[in-house]
Amino acid sequence: MKSELNYSLKQHNTFGIDAKCAQFVEYSSEAEAKEVAELLRTSRVPYIIIGGGSNLLLTRDYEGIVVHSTCKGIERQGSRLICGSGEVFDDVVAYSITQGLYGAENLSLIPGDVGASAVQNIGAYGAEAKDLIHSIRAIEIATGNVCVIENAECEYGYRQSRFKHDWKNQYLIVSVEYEFSETFEPRLDYGNIRSELEKSGISNPTAHELRDTIIRIREAKLPDPKVLGNAGSFFMNPIVARSKYNELAGQYEGMPHYDIDAENVKIPAGWMIDQCGWKGKSLGRAGVHDKQALVLVNRGGATGQEIVKLCETIQKDVKQKFGIDIYPEVNVI
Ligand code: EPU
Protein backbone atom coordinates (compact mmCIF):
# COMPACT_ATOMS: atom_id res chain seq x y z
CA MET A 1 0.00 0.00 0.00
CA LYS A 2 1.32 3.39 -0.96
CA SER A 3 0.55 6.29 1.36
CA GLU A 4 1.34 10.00 1.11
CA LEU A 5 0.46 12.85 3.44
CA ASN A 6 -0.66 16.35 2.43
CA TYR A 7 -0.86 15.23 -1.20
CA SER A 8 -1.86 17.30 -4.26
CA LEU A 9 -4.67 15.75 -6.30
CA LYS A 10 -3.92 17.82 -9.41
CA GLN A 11 -2.87 14.73 -11.39
CA HIS A 12 -5.90 12.82 -10.16
CA ASN A 13 -8.70 14.99 -11.55
CA THR A 14 -9.20 15.79 -15.22
CA PHE A 15 -10.37 19.33 -14.38
CA GLY A 16 -6.76 19.82 -13.28
CA ILE A 17 -7.73 21.46 -9.99
CA ASP A 18 -4.96 21.82 -7.48
CA ALA A 19 -6.59 20.68 -4.23
CA LYS A 20 -4.86 18.66 -1.54
CA CYS A 21 -5.91 15.80 0.66
CA ALA A 22 -4.64 15.03 4.16
CA GLN A 23 -3.70 11.47 3.11
CA PHE A 24 -3.63 9.66 -0.21
CA VAL A 25 -3.50 5.86 -0.32
CA GLU A 26 -3.24 3.47 -3.25
CA TYR A 27 -3.81 -0.28 -3.38
CA SER A 28 -2.37 -2.40 -6.16
CA SER A 29 -3.68 -5.84 -5.16
CA GLU A 30 -6.39 -7.58 -3.19
CA ALA A 31 -4.02 -7.93 -0.22
CA GLU A 32 -3.29 -4.20 -0.27
CA ALA A 33 -7.00 -3.41 -0.59
CA LYS A 34 -7.48 -5.35 2.67
CA GLU A 35 -4.78 -3.23 4.33
CA VAL A 36 -6.49 -0.05 3.10
CA ALA A 37 -9.84 -1.33 4.39
CA GLU A 38 -8.29 -1.84 7.79
CA LEU A 39 -6.79 1.66 7.75
CA LEU A 40 -10.19 3.13 6.88
CA ARG A 41 -11.88 1.09 9.63
CA THR A 42 -9.43 2.03 12.33
CA SER A 43 -8.51 5.62 11.48
CA ARG A 44 -12.10 6.93 11.69
CA VAL A 45 -11.27 9.76 9.32
CA PRO A 46 -13.65 10.57 6.46
CA TYR A 47 -12.61 9.11 3.12
CA ILE A 48 -13.51 9.09 -0.53
CA ILE A 49 -12.67 6.56 -3.22
CA ILE A 50 -11.67 7.94 -6.61
CA GLY A 51 -11.05 6.38 -10.02
CA GLY A 52 -9.30 8.16 -12.88
CA GLY A 53 -10.72 11.47 -11.62
CA SER A 54 -12.63 12.05 -14.83
CA ASN A 55 -15.89 12.57 -12.99
CA LEU A 56 -14.61 14.56 -10.07
CA LEU A 57 -14.85 18.23 -9.16
CA LEU A 58 -12.74 19.24 -6.17
CA THR A 59 -13.99 22.42 -4.53
CA ARG A 60 -11.72 22.40 -1.49
CA ASP A 61 -8.81 20.65 0.19
CA TYR A 62 -10.02 17.33 1.57
CA GLU A 63 -9.35 16.77 5.26
CA GLY A 64 -9.52 13.03 4.99
CA ILE A 65 -8.18 10.02 3.10
CA VAL A 66 -8.46 9.72 -0.66
CA VAL A 67 -8.28 6.11 -1.86
CA HIS A 68 -7.23 5.10 -5.37
CA SER A 69 -6.77 1.71 -7.02
CA THR A 70 -3.77 0.85 -9.16
CA CYS A 71 -4.79 -2.82 -9.49
CA LYS A 72 -3.61 -3.88 -12.97
CA GLY A 73 -4.07 -6.80 -15.28
CA ILE A 74 -6.42 -7.92 -18.03
CA GLU A 75 -6.93 -11.68 -18.12
CA ARG A 76 -9.02 -13.53 -20.67
CA GLN A 77 -11.21 -16.43 -19.62
CA GLY A 78 -13.33 -17.66 -22.51
CA SER A 79 -15.56 -14.77 -23.57
CA ARG A 80 -14.77 -12.83 -20.40
CA LEU A 81 -12.04 -10.35 -19.46
CA ILE A 82 -11.15 -10.01 -15.80
CA CYS A 83 -9.71 -6.53 -15.41
CA GLY A 84 -7.94 -4.81 -12.53
CA SER A 85 -9.94 -1.87 -11.19
CA GLY A 86 -7.03 0.50 -11.86
CA GLU A 87 -6.81 -0.35 -15.56
CA VAL A 88 -7.85 2.38 -17.98
CA PHE A 89 -11.30 1.40 -19.25
CA ASP A 90 -10.49 2.33 -22.84
CA ASP A 91 -7.49 0.00 -22.79
CA VAL A 92 -9.95 -2.80 -22.04
CA VAL A 93 -12.13 -1.72 -24.96
CA ALA A 94 -9.12 -1.67 -27.31
CA TYR A 95 -7.89 -5.05 -26.05
CA SER A 96 -11.31 -6.71 -26.33
CA ILE A 97 -11.45 -5.89 -30.04
CA THR A 98 -7.99 -7.35 -30.68
CA GLN A 99 -9.20 -10.51 -28.93
CA GLY A 100 -12.29 -10.86 -31.12
CA LEU A 101 -14.51 -10.02 -28.14
CA TYR A 102 -17.29 -7.60 -29.00
CA GLY A 103 -19.81 -5.28 -27.41
CA ALA A 104 -17.64 -2.47 -26.09
CA GLU A 105 -16.94 -0.62 -29.37
CA ASN A 106 -19.47 2.19 -28.68
CA LEU A 107 -17.82 2.84 -25.33
CA SER A 108 -14.49 3.72 -26.97
CA LEU A 109 -12.49 6.62 -25.54
CA ILE A 110 -14.68 7.16 -22.48
CA PRO A 111 -12.21 8.40 -19.90
CA GLY A 112 -11.88 6.69 -16.55
CA ASP A 113 -10.85 3.47 -14.88
CA VAL A 114 -12.36 0.00 -14.80
CA GLY A 115 -13.50 0.40 -11.17
CA ALA A 116 -15.38 3.59 -12.00
CA SER A 117 -17.11 1.92 -14.96
CA ALA A 118 -18.84 -0.35 -12.46
CA VAL A 119 -19.74 2.46 -10.05
CA GLN A 120 -20.91 5.02 -12.58
CA ASN A 121 -22.32 2.74 -15.27
CA ILE A 122 -20.59 4.83 -17.91
CA GLY A 123 -22.27 4.96 -21.26
CA ALA A 124 -22.25 6.38 -24.77
CA TYR A 125 -23.85 5.84 -28.18
CA GLY A 126 -26.57 3.54 -26.93
CA ALA A 127 -24.25 1.27 -24.89
CA GLU A 128 -23.63 1.14 -21.15
CA ALA A 129 -21.04 -0.60 -18.98
CA LYS A 130 -23.83 -2.60 -17.32
CA ASP A 131 -24.39 -4.44 -20.62
CA LEU A 132 -20.90 -5.92 -20.27
CA ILE A 133 -20.39 -6.26 -16.52
CA HIS A 134 -20.75 -9.82 -15.28
CA SER A 135 -19.52 -9.37 -11.71
CA ILE A 136 -17.31 -7.27 -9.47
CA ARG A 137 -14.72 -8.47 -6.99
CA ALA A 138 -14.29 -6.15 -4.04
CA ILE A 139 -13.18 -5.89 -0.44
CA GLU A 140 -15.94 -4.98 1.97
CA ILE A 141 -14.45 -2.19 4.07
CA ALA A 142 -16.43 -3.00 7.23
CA THR A 143 -15.17 -6.59 7.42
CA GLY A 144 -12.16 -6.88 5.10
CA ASN A 145 -13.92 -9.80 3.37
CA VAL A 146 -13.67 -10.51 -0.33
CA CYS A 147 -17.07 -10.23 -2.04
CA VAL A 148 -18.15 -11.14 -5.53
CA ILE A 149 -21.05 -8.93 -6.50
CA GLU A 150 -23.25 -9.96 -9.44
CA ASN A 151 -24.47 -7.45 -12.00
CA ALA A 152 -28.13 -7.89 -10.96
CA GLU A 153 -27.34 -6.88 -7.38
CA CYS A 154 -25.95 -3.50 -8.48
CA GLU A 155 -29.34 -2.10 -9.62
CA TYR A 156 -27.83 -0.37 -12.61
CA GLY A 157 -29.62 2.58 -14.22
CA TYR A 158 -28.63 5.62 -16.26
CA ARG A 159 -25.28 6.65 -14.69
CA GLN A 160 -26.47 4.99 -11.48
CA SER A 161 -25.71 2.00 -9.29
CA ARG A 162 -25.93 1.02 -5.63
CA PHE A 163 -22.23 1.92 -5.33
CA LYS A 164 -23.39 5.55 -5.54
CA HIS A 165 -26.19 5.16 -3.00
CA ASP A 166 -26.66 2.56 -0.25
CA TRP A 167 -23.25 0.96 -0.95
CA LYS A 168 -21.40 4.29 -1.14
CA ASN A 169 -17.93 4.02 0.43
CA GLN A 170 -18.53 0.40 1.45
CA TYR A 171 -16.36 -1.48 -1.05
CA LEU A 172 -12.88 -1.28 -2.52
CA ILE A 173 -13.23 -2.70 -6.01
CA VAL A 174 -10.33 -4.95 -6.99
CA SER A 175 -11.45 -6.22 -10.40
CA VAL A 176 -14.38 -6.25 -12.78
CA GLU A 177 -15.31 -9.22 -14.94
CA TYR A 178 -16.79 -8.19 -18.29
CA GLU A 179 -18.63 -10.62 -20.54
CA PHE A 180 -18.36 -10.06 -24.29
CA SER A 181 -19.97 -11.51 -27.36
CA GLU A 182 -17.89 -13.57 -29.76
CA THR A 183 -19.96 -12.35 -32.69
CA PHE A 184 -19.78 -8.75 -33.79
CA GLU A 185 -23.18 -7.07 -33.87
CA PRO A 186 -22.55 -3.39 -34.49
CA ARG A 187 -24.93 -0.83 -33.01
CA LEU A 188 -24.98 2.01 -35.52
CA ASP A 189 -28.36 3.62 -34.97
CA TYR A 190 -27.41 6.15 -32.35
CA GLY A 191 -26.66 9.78 -33.14
CA ASN A 192 -24.40 10.37 -36.11
CA ILE A 193 -22.53 7.02 -36.16
CA ARG A 194 -23.96 5.94 -39.50
CA SER A 195 -23.39 9.30 -41.20
CA GLU A 196 -19.79 9.43 -39.91
CA LEU A 197 -19.16 5.93 -41.29
CA GLU A 198 -20.63 6.98 -44.62
CA LYS A 199 -18.15 9.86 -44.82
CA SER A 200 -15.45 7.19 -44.98
CA GLY A 201 -17.51 5.15 -47.43
CA ILE A 202 -18.22 2.38 -44.91
CA SER A 203 -21.62 0.75 -44.52
CA ASN A 204 -20.62 -2.53 -42.88
CA PRO A 205 -17.86 -1.59 -40.43
CA THR A 206 -15.49 -3.95 -38.72
CA ALA A 207 -15.18 -3.57 -34.95
CA HIS A 208 -11.92 -1.65 -35.49
CA GLU A 209 -13.62 0.72 -37.93
CA LEU A 210 -16.52 1.28 -35.54
CA ARG A 211 -14.13 2.02 -32.68
CA ASP A 212 -12.16 4.47 -34.85
CA THR A 213 -15.38 6.22 -35.87
CA ILE A 214 -16.59 6.56 -32.28
CA ILE A 215 -13.18 7.96 -31.34
CA ARG A 216 -13.39 10.51 -34.18
CA ILE A 217 -16.90 11.61 -33.14
CA ARG A 218 -15.86 12.02 -29.51
CA GLU A 219 -12.64 13.84 -30.33
CA ALA A 220 -14.53 16.34 -32.47
CA LYS A 221 -16.87 17.25 -29.60
CA LEU A 222 -15.07 16.59 -26.35
CA PRO A 223 -11.95 18.47 -25.30
CA ASP A 224 -8.78 16.59 -24.40
CA PRO A 225 -8.34 17.06 -20.62
CA LYS A 226 -4.58 17.35 -21.11
CA VAL A 227 -5.21 20.49 -23.15
CA LEU A 228 -8.39 21.85 -21.53
CA GLY A 229 -9.42 20.59 -18.10
CA ASN A 230 -12.90 19.03 -18.11
CA ALA A 231 -14.87 16.06 -16.82
CA GLY A 232 -16.80 15.04 -19.93
CA SER A 233 -20.53 15.62 -19.57
CA PHE A 234 -20.93 17.80 -16.51
CA PHE A 235 -24.69 17.30 -16.17
CA MET A 236 -26.92 14.25 -16.52
CA ASN A 237 -29.63 14.40 -19.15
CA PRO A 238 -32.90 14.94 -17.25
CA ILE A 239 -35.77 12.49 -17.61
CA VAL A 240 -39.10 14.32 -17.67
CA ALA A 241 -42.78 13.39 -17.86
CA ARG A 242 -44.08 13.00 -21.40
CA SER A 243 -46.62 15.80 -20.76
CA LYS A 244 -43.72 18.17 -20.04
CA TYR A 245 -41.93 17.01 -23.18
CA ASN A 246 -45.07 17.54 -25.29
CA GLU A 247 -45.43 21.06 -23.93
CA LEU A 248 -41.82 21.93 -24.83
CA ALA A 249 -41.90 20.13 -28.19
CA GLY A 250 -44.80 22.42 -29.14
CA GLN A 251 -42.59 25.42 -28.44
CA TYR A 252 -39.27 24.12 -29.81
CA GLU A 253 -39.66 22.42 -33.13
CA GLY A 254 -37.25 19.52 -33.65
CA MET A 255 -36.21 19.46 -29.99
CA PRO A 256 -33.88 16.42 -29.57
CA HIS A 257 -35.09 13.74 -27.17
CA TYR A 258 -34.83 10.04 -26.37
CA ASP A 259 -37.92 8.03 -25.46
CA ILE A 260 -37.43 6.14 -22.20
CA ASP A 261 -40.88 4.53 -21.87
CA ALA A 262 -44.53 5.45 -22.32
CA GLU A 263 -44.42 8.07 -19.56
CA ASN A 264 -40.85 9.37 -19.63
CA VAL A 265 -38.61 11.19 -22.08
CA LYS A 266 -34.93 12.13 -21.76
CA ILE A 267 -34.04 15.64 -22.92
CA PRO A 268 -30.39 16.48 -23.71
CA ALA A 269 -29.16 18.96 -21.11
CA GLY A 270 -26.48 20.06 -23.63
CA TRP A 271 -29.19 21.21 -26.04
CA MET A 272 -30.99 23.21 -23.29
CA ILE A 273 -27.73 24.84 -22.14
CA ASP A 274 -26.97 25.68 -25.76
CA GLN A 275 -30.46 27.21 -26.16
CA CYS A 276 -29.76 29.36 -23.10
CA GLY A 277 -26.82 30.85 -25.02
CA TRP A 278 -24.09 29.38 -22.83
CA LYS A 279 -22.10 27.47 -25.47
CA GLY A 280 -18.58 28.87 -25.70
CA LYS A 281 -19.23 31.38 -22.89
CA SER A 282 -17.32 31.77 -19.61
CA LEU A 283 -17.84 32.91 -16.07
CA GLY A 284 -14.45 33.83 -14.67
CA ARG A 285 -12.01 31.07 -15.53
CA ALA A 286 -14.73 28.44 -15.85
CA GLY A 287 -16.37 27.98 -19.22
CA VAL A 288 -18.79 26.04 -21.42
CA HIS A 289 -17.12 24.11 -24.23
CA ASP A 290 -17.71 25.64 -27.66
CA LYS A 291 -18.45 22.32 -29.38
CA GLN A 292 -20.64 20.64 -26.73
CA ALA A 293 -22.52 22.68 -24.14
CA LEU A 294 -22.81 19.76 -21.71
CA VAL A 295 -19.09 20.01 -21.01
CA LEU A 296 -17.78 22.58 -18.53
CA VAL A 297 -14.10 23.44 -18.87
CA ASN A 298 -11.30 24.93 -16.84
CA ARG A 299 -10.00 27.74 -19.03
CA GLY A 300 -6.83 27.83 -16.93
CA GLY A 301 -6.38 28.09 -13.18
CA ALA A 302 -10.10 27.90 -12.33
CA THR A 303 -10.93 26.85 -8.80
CA GLY A 304 -13.55 24.22 -8.11
CA GLN A 305 -15.67 27.01 -6.59
CA GLU A 306 -15.64 28.90 -9.89
CA ILE A 307 -16.86 25.82 -11.73
CA VAL A 308 -19.59 25.33 -9.12
CA LYS A 309 -20.64 28.97 -9.60
CA LEU A 310 -20.93 28.39 -13.36
CA CYS A 311 -22.82 25.14 -12.75
CA GLU A 312 -25.34 26.90 -10.47
CA THR A 313 -25.83 29.79 -12.89
CA ILE A 314 -26.52 27.36 -15.74
CA GLN A 315 -28.92 25.33 -13.56
CA LYS A 316 -30.85 28.53 -12.76
CA ASP A 317 -31.02 29.60 -16.43
CA VAL A 318 -32.19 26.16 -17.62
CA LYS A 319 -34.82 26.07 -14.89
CA GLN A 320 -36.04 29.53 -15.85
CA LYS A 321 -36.23 28.84 -19.59
CA PHE A 322 -37.47 25.25 -19.60
CA GLY A 323 -38.83 24.67 -16.08
CA ILE A 324 -36.50 21.64 -15.78
CA ASP A 325 -33.97 20.90 -13.04
CA ILE A 326 -30.63 19.55 -14.21
CA TYR A 327 -28.10 17.94 -11.91
CA PRO A 328 -24.36 17.31 -12.17
CA GLU A 329 -23.14 13.92 -13.30
CA VAL A 330 -19.76 14.67 -11.76
CA ASN A 331 -19.10 14.03 -8.11
CA VAL A 332 -18.61 17.34 -6.32
CA ILE A 333 -16.32 17.13 -3.28
N1 EPU B 1 -26.85 19.38 -28.44
C1 EPU B 1 -26.94 20.70 -28.82
N2 EPU B 1 -25.97 21.55 -28.37
C2 EPU B 1 -24.93 21.14 -27.59
C3 EPU B 1 -24.86 19.80 -27.20
C4 EPU B 1 -25.84 18.93 -27.64
O1 EPU B 1 -27.85 21.11 -29.50
O2 EPU B 1 -24.10 21.98 -27.24
C5 EPU B 1 -27.85 18.43 -28.96
C6 EPU B 1 -27.21 17.54 -30.03
O3 EPU B 1 -27.30 18.10 -31.30
C7 EPU B 1 -28.02 16.28 -29.93
C8 EPU B 1 -28.39 16.23 -28.45
O4 EPU B 1 -28.24 17.55 -27.94
O5 EPU B 1 -29.20 16.41 -30.65
C9 EPU B 1 -27.54 15.24 -27.67
O6 EPU B 1 -26.18 15.57 -27.78
P1 EPU B 1 -25.03 14.44 -27.85
O7 EPU B 1 -25.41 13.41 -28.84
O8 EPU B 1 -23.74 15.15 -28.02
O9 EPU B 1 -25.09 13.70 -26.49
P2 EPU B 1 -25.35 14.17 -24.99
O10 EPU B 1 -26.72 13.79 -24.60
O11 EPU B 1 -24.98 15.60 -24.85
C10 EPU B 1 -24.59 11.87 -23.94
C11 EPU B 1 -23.67 11.40 -22.86
C12 EPU B 1 -22.21 11.44 -23.32
C13 EPU B 1 -22.09 10.53 -24.53
C14 EPU B 1 -23.08 11.02 -25.61
C15 EPU B 1 -23.12 10.11 -26.81
C16 EPU B 1 -24.73 11.98 -20.75
C17 EPU B 1 -24.73 12.87 -19.56
N3 EPU B 1 -23.82 12.24 -21.68
O12 EPU B 1 -24.30 13.25 -24.20
O13 EPU B 1 -21.40 10.91 -22.29
O14 EPU B 1 -20.78 10.53 -25.04
O15 EPU B 1 -24.42 11.07 -25.09
O16 EPU B 1 -23.76 8.93 -26.44
O17 EPU B 1 -25.54 11.07 -20.83
C18 EPU B 1 -20.11 11.59 -20.41
O18 EPU B 1 -20.94 11.05 -19.70
O19 EPU B 1 -19.07 12.15 -19.94
C19 EPU B 1 -20.32 11.63 -21.85
C20 EPU B 1 -19.51 12.31 -22.64
Kindly describe this structure.
- The chain has 333 residues and is an alpha+beta fold.
- Among the domains are: 2-69, Uridine Diphospho-n-acetylenolpyruvylglucosamine Reductase, domain 2, CATH 3.30.43; 229-332, Alpha-Beta Complex (Uridine Diphospho-n-acetylenolpyruvylglucosamine Reductase, domain 1).
- Helices cover 27% and strands 26% of the residues.
- It contains eight helices and 20 strands.
- It has helices spanning 30-43, 89-98, 114-120, 193-199, 207-221, 242-251, 269-275, 304-322, and strands at residues 2-8, 20-27, 47-50, 56-57, 62-69, 74-77, 80-84, 123-124, 127-128, 133-140, 146-150, 171-179, 229-233, 239-241, 258-259, 264-266, 282-283, 286-288, 295-298, 331-332.
- Strands 6-7-12-10-11 form a five-stranded antiparallel sheet.
- It is globular.
- It starts with a strand and ends with a strand.
- 42% of the residues are buried.
- The chain binds uridine-diphosphate-2(N-acetylglucosaminyl) butyric acid.
Key structural traits:
333 residues; Uridine Diphospho-n-acetylenolpyruvylglucosamine Reductase, domain 1; Uridine Diphospho-n-acetylenolpyruvylglucosamine Reductase, domain 2; globular
Compose a concise summary of this entry:
The chain has helices at 30-43, 89-98, 114-120, 193-199, 207-221, 242-251, 269-275, 304-322, and strands at residues 2-8, 20-27, 47-50, 56-57, 62-69, 74-77, 80-84, 123-124, 127-128, 133-140, 146-150, 171-179, 229-233, 239-241, 258-259, 264-266, 282-283, 286-288, 295-298, 331-332.
